[in-house]
Design a protein that fits this description.
Largest sheet: 8 strands, mixed
Helix content: 40-55%
Oligomer: single chain
Radius of gyration: 21 Å
Number of strands: 8
Distance between the termini: 28 Å
């Protein structure tokens, strides 16, 4: 499945390797840095397997919640938000940057709560109203969807300058809504989320902001890269992490298996430019990865048009004990 939105660092071109190196069996799948949702949307559906999509970007999780729970309202809102110029892109950016809630009905509900309930009960009711509005803010979701679609490479920061008919992507919203039906959508810090959902039978996939490489809507300083590693080393479940290839990351994750691959660099203006990436696991997938790779070649995955571009190499094997695979 294609995601309804483009995204900086999207994993469409790496799906084949994620699927190849995934553990054999698990009862829950946690996409910690969900981003565009590409990995969650293309995760094999298994009866009884819990699926969790998470991202710390509240605009992003609000969009996916509205796609999941209120697709009709979102499509209606998108139909009445024409955007065809840089000025309107800037208007949407300012709208998304504001903190106050602007819905008239919400202000009325908050006023009625204060008028008809004692202070303690009124505060509880207002908190529920605010939480519900944050979770299903259709206007904000529509504005964010347009901001991503019209920005350069989905970075949400700069106007892309290309004409775009939003209606061409409506079918993706419908498909995504159906796929997310049983997926839990979370908006939490990665450490809290991992601690909540980690189990021995969990598959925890992390695609954090790449180290010193790309621009993201949410800042991710060096300390957070260290904090993520430290949290993952404490996990009971199966862990997979994707990153850009660099000495700092390889050294940081030397207690993991590290697999290296390359893909076409879509952000480069140089013809034939490639981008180096690594996929790291706290378990050894080699016993079954070769056979699974042959099976995956039967399917057409986005960004992997031929078998020749699906090459990967084990560049580091940990000397410390890792999690045993449940084969």
């Amino acid at each position: 499945m294609k995601s309804p939105i483009p995204w900086v660092g999207g994993k469409g071109k790496l799906l084949w390797l994620i699927h190849t190196l995934a553990p054999e069996r698990y009862a829950r799948f946690i996409d910690v840095f969900g981003g565009s949702g590409t990995v969650t949307l293309n995760h094999p559906i298994t009866p009884g397997c819990m699926e969790v999509y998470n991202d710390y970007n509240s605009n992003l999780t609000n969009l996916f919640l509205c796609i999941k729970e209120r697709p009709l309202a979102l499509l209606k809102e998108l139909g009445f938000l024409p955007l065809d110029a840089r000025d309107e892109f800037n208007v949407l950016s300012k709208f998304l940057a504001q903190e106050e809630l602007t819905d008239d009905y919400l202000n009325e509900e908050l006023e009625l709560a204060d008028r008809y309930f004692p202070p303690a009960e009124a505060e509880a009711i207002k908190e529920l109203l605010l939480k519900r509005t944050r979770l299903y803010d259709v206007r904000r979701a529509a504005a964010y969807f347009k901001q991503v679609r019209y920005s350069f490479s989905g970075n949400t920061k700069t106007f892309g300058g290309r004409p775009c008919d939003i209606r061409r992507f409506f079918y993706l919203i419908w498909e995504c809504s159906r796929r997310l039906r049983d997926v839990l959508v979370e908006n939490k810090d990665f450490e809290e989320l991992i601690r909540q959902y980690d189990r021995p039978d969990a598959f925890i996939y992390c695609d954090p902001p790449y180290y010193d490489a790309e621009c993201y809507a949410v800042e991710f300083p060096k300390a957070d890269h260290q904090r993520l590693h430290d949290a993952l080393t404490q996990c009971e479940g199966f862990v997979m992490v994707s990153y850009n290839y660099c000495p700092f990351i390889c050294e940081l994750y030397k207690d993991f298996y590290i697999f290296h691959t390359t893909r076409p660099n879509s952000m480069s203006q140089t013809a034939g430019s490639e981008y180096e990436e690594v996929v790291m696991t706290n378990y050894d997938p080699r016993a079954y990865a070769a056979a699974r790779s042959e099976q995956i070649t039967l399917f057409q995955l986005e960004g992997a048009e031929s078998c020749e571009c699906r090459q990967y190499t084990l560049i580091h094997e940990p000397t410390t004990k890792t999690k045993e695979n449940n084969t």
